[in-house]
Description:
Chain A: Keywords: Iron, Lyase. The structure holds two protein chains of two kinds. Chain A is an alpha/beta fold.
Amino acid sequence: MLTLSIAEQAMLDGREGPAAALALRVIADAGRMMGASELVTIESAHIDGCLYHGEAGVLFAERLVHDGGRVAVPSTLNVGALDLLHRDRERLSPETRMMAHRLAQAYVDLGCRQTWTCSPYQAGHRPTFGSHVAWGESNAVAFCNSVLGARTNRYGDFLDICAAISGRAPLMGLHRDAARRATILIDAMGLEPDFLAADIAYPILGAWLGREVGEAVAAFVGLGTPGEDRLKALGAAAASTGAVGLFHVVGSTPEAPTIAAATQGAPPERIIRLDHAMLQEAWRGLSTAEGRPGAPISGVAIGSPHLSAAELCLLDRLLGERRCTVPLYACTGRHSLREVGKALSERLATRGVEIVADTCVVVTPILRDTSGLIVTNSGKFAHYVPSNTGHEVIFAGLETCVDSAVAGRFLPGDQAWR
Amino acid sequence: MEVKAELLLAAFPAGPRTAPILQLREPLSFWGGVDPATGRLIDPRSIDHDKDLVGRIALIHELRGSSSASSVLLELIHAGRTPTAIIVAKPDAILAVAAIVGREMGWTVPPILRLDVDDLERLPDGAPATVFEDGMVRLG
């Protein structure tokens, strides 16, 4: 039985206008279906529904605008289908482009901030530890819960904007203490320190985690203190191959200062001793092509989740004075471009890097060749490229990505752990 | 044979729904896994690749992946290219919200039901079945 507060009942009765009533009706129905007994007041939202998928999403967003909808909490926007900073980069028909603009405009009219990024947590949207929020976009959800310690379920499109307008979400799942307990302990102490010292380890760990645990909450022991970009890569891969919304890294993430804190004092239901053989399978699963050294490639795609300023600087350093002979698509947000400054992005552009902002290459058609081989260092790109763009994909580290973009051929240099 | 499923979300407009069963044992992601224009399964890595959801009672053993799944299902609803009914092993808010929004927009929405995996397994792939308004699923 879902019980509403007096204020929520008033909203449902239309006291705050028809859009708020509709939004709360959707939230309440979803809550009822999932067995929630009450709603929780949220402090912010991250909206995934602004990505154009078709006419239906536009009609719904415009209905909310027409009904006087306005977000009740600070709300950031996830990627859209358009690169609003580099016009006409997407291969979209004029009709689709117009519909994507209509959708974007509707979400702006609802009062959302134009962040257009899947890394809102690196664009200044940092909810405080323990606060309740409603976020969409699976990697952002994993980061928000795991790294920031704020509380959100995986809010799909529409639920996100309905939560933002009503300021409410069903009180259930990861909003509650019980669901945040690690039931699986992953002992990573058997992994080689050299492996864990490399960026490539983290999307592999994430891809393995998602496959292994599905949506269960796990705690890693023995990862040390990976930085935010590594935790971002791990979470994004885990939320692609599985439905991971929260993971803990003992000694690093805020709800896991100790093993006992991560498991809330209860014994774990499962302990997994991670070894390289287990990871190799996950690693292989990230590629659809064998990755014969020297094989011609049609491009390199990085930046899912969107590159941070630090990652753009690393790309610049690795590329050095060299020039890409096939496109290296670097997907990022306007926040990172602002942070690194114009000089760096212009230098990258002169060296054949195609900077993609506000969107990314798996959500809208940008890749110039429509088939062939794409090399990526992103677990999430590796997961979605084959079905979303039709390319074959090879997963490799950033150095291999850069070397391969320069050579126009797959040049594996960091395959030692394979 | 009949089995009583938990009705998560009623069909709109109300009424029983009859169609062949489609068993989807591999984890399914709607975004990246289903073409929003046609309702076909498009992930080449899946054993279910190229199957058609349209006009089937889709038995989804496990849902995975992106929160854009709601958008894909809403587009299918708007286009009238949905499964006839969806039966999942676990309630899933991301799918349900598409159906809730579809109903708010006045579009035809398939019922969403829940059955334990053991019961899902007992429903033969390809067999015709009817899903009733109270959640009863009857073969034949």
